[in-house]
Design brief:
Layout: H1 4-16, E1 46-49, H2 61-71, H3 88-96, E2 113-118, H4 121-124, H5 131-141, E3 145-150, E4 164-169, E5 179-184, E6 190-191, E7 206-207, H6 210-222, E8 228-233, E9 236-241, E10 243-247, E11 252-259, E12 264-266, H7 270-274, H8 280-283, H9 294-316, H10 327-340, H11 347-357, E13 358-360, E14 382-387, H12 407-412, H13 414-425, E15 433-434, E16 440-443, H14 447-450, H15 460-482
Parallel strand pairs: 1-2, 3-5
Antiparallel strand pairs: 2-4, 3-4, 5-10, 6-7, 8-9, 11-14, 11-15, 11-16, 12-13
């Protein structure tokens, strides 16, 4: 607890209830450099938290990053770090670090259970391979995520957004192992005006009754995929699915980068040669860094301008060659022309010439690198998300972080990647390939998608009738104003 006033109020409340105030520690849970975890080294059977939503952790950045980098999984934040503007997943990692180890039948290793309230961000924020995605992956692949309960909106005093209770444990019973239960509790509420309070409290306009809490608890205990319930929607009652069960792997996917070859034509027209002035490497030829010697700087600029003119003249000699549909042929002629003109064209200038005189052309030959491999076209680059194969028989390499090699990941899923490309991509773009170095694994939990129910729009004739009626009402109102 960070604020002195909040800490004092909490201690007062504990005293009134005859509880031990030593359990309330003033300080920063994550560590701000001045204070640190007040229960360092302690473990708990049950942990509950409602951390702040979407709050920056800049004050804790140095301490958290140092622990992540130096201790890794021996510390609290080994799996990764979330975005600096939302520290919710840091609190969950902190709580996981305080779980008792678990071994079935061993009283000294009893395990722990965690309940934490989040907003929607920890469910899906972060791209594949990012900190949030890796944290989700670490929790799910270790089979700690037991269930997520989606709660109604407008449930809390200071926020009206939808919230989600994550149940995390390292002591799942056998029937729940390897799976995650998602529960849709968004329709389990009554309006505050229907309760004993009779009015809303700031953003708190909804209330979950005791009976509804017991109902949600039964849904969790039943652990059934496709369990239904009667819920209130827009003043009416509908039958909806409120429980879904998924294998752990169903939340994971491979994000692969699909490349297509660069194809360009080249032509030394005056219009394209003029584009050289927009290339920084070419423009920098007529600049100088000799700021203290004006005369030397002026000479250097003049020499650069003369070199620019010589390059323009050199390129003009290729105008009669017409349009090249092969970069290798254009480069060969450029090299010969440079030799005749006794000009050296360093790599940055050649690159500038290719950029200025080249245009993408789908019928041109493929541009290749020094090893003869196709060069990728960044404008045609795309990504594909490939679902992880079901089952747990295929071991998943647990390497985390952007600096970790993905060789084992590629080897493990080579068959799935190739099969997906052959089925979904190559029939449409036969020259595409996967850049294996960019392949990453991601995890997200799209809970709302799994409970989405499509409702078709009203018949067109009915909509047209409503519009006609409204138009008539508007015309009547305008007529009254004119009269």
């Amino acid at each position: 607890m960070r604020q002195d006033e909040s800490w004092a109020i909490c201690c007062s409340d504990m005293l009134i209830k005859d509880e031990d105030t030593a359990n309330i520690v003033l300080g920063d849970t994550l560590g701000d450099g001045k204070t640190r975890d007040g229960f360092e080294g302690r473990r708990f059977h049950y942990l509950m938290a409602n951390p702040p939503f979407g709050v920056e952790w800049k004050d804790q950045k140095d301490v958290v990053e140092r622990e992540h980098q130096t201790l890794g999984f021996a510390g609290r934040f080994g799996a990764g770090l979330p975005a600096i503007n939302d520290g919710s997943l840091l609190f969950l990692q902190h709580m996981i670090a305080k779980m008792h180890p678990y071994a079935e039948g061993d009283e000294d290793r009893p395990g722990s259970r965690i309940a934490i309230v989040f907003n929607g961000s920890p469910l899906f924020s972060g791209d594949a391979g990012s900190g949030p995605s890796n944290i989700r992956r670490w929790i799910i692949e270790n089979d700690w995520l037991d269930a997520i309960v989606a709660l109604p909106d407008q449930l809390f005093y200071n926020t009206g957004i939808f919230t989600y209770v994550w149940l995390v444990t390292n002591r799942k019973p056998p029937e729940r192992r390897g799976r995650v239960q998602l529960i849709d509790g968004t329709r389990f509420f009554i309006k505050m005006t229907e309760s004993e309070y009779r009015k809303a409290l700031n953003n708190k306009r909804n209330l979950i009754t005791e009976e509804q809490i017991r109902h949600l608890t039964r849904v969790y205990g039943n652990n059934q995929d496709g369990e239904i319930a009667e819920v209130q929607i827009n003043g009416g009652t509908e039958t909806r699915v409120v429980s879904r069960i998924f294998d752990n792997r169903e939340f994971g996917f491979l994000k692969v980068t699909v490349e297509r070859p660069l194809r360009m034509n080249f032509e030394a027209t005056p219009e394209r040669i003029a584009r050289l002035d927009d290339q920084s490497a070419f423009a920098n030829l007529a600049t100088s860094k000799k700021r203290k010697d004006a005369a030397a700087a002026e000479r250097e600029i003049e020499e650069g301008q003369a070199l620019q003119d010589a390059i323009r003249d050199l390129l003009a000699t290729l105008e009669g060659k017409g349009r090249y549909l092969d970069r290798a042929a254009f480069e060969a002629d450029l090299t010969q022309a440079a030799k005749r003109a006794d000009l050296k064209l360093p790599a940055p200038i050649r690159k500038a010439i290719f950029a200025a005189l080249g245009e993408r052309d789908p019928i041109a030959a493929i541009c290749r690198d020094a090893k003869g491999q196709p060069e990728p076209d960044s404008e045609l680059r795309d990504t594909e998300n490939i679902p992880l194969p079901p089952g747990t028989d295929l071991p998943l390499p647990m390497d985390f972080g952007p600096d970790k090699p993905n060789d084992r990941l590629i080897a493990a899923f080579r068959g799935e990647i190739d099969a997906y490309m052959a089925r979904e991509v190559l029939p449409h773009v036969p020259d595409a390939w996967v850049d294996d170095d960019k392949t990453k694994i991601g995890y997200e939990i799209p809970i709302n998608r799994h409970f989405y129910v499509y409702k078709p729009p009203r018949p067109l004739a009915e909509i047209e009738a409503d519009i006609a009626q409204l138009e008539g009402e508007i015309a009547g109102l305008l007529k009254g104003l004119i009269a």
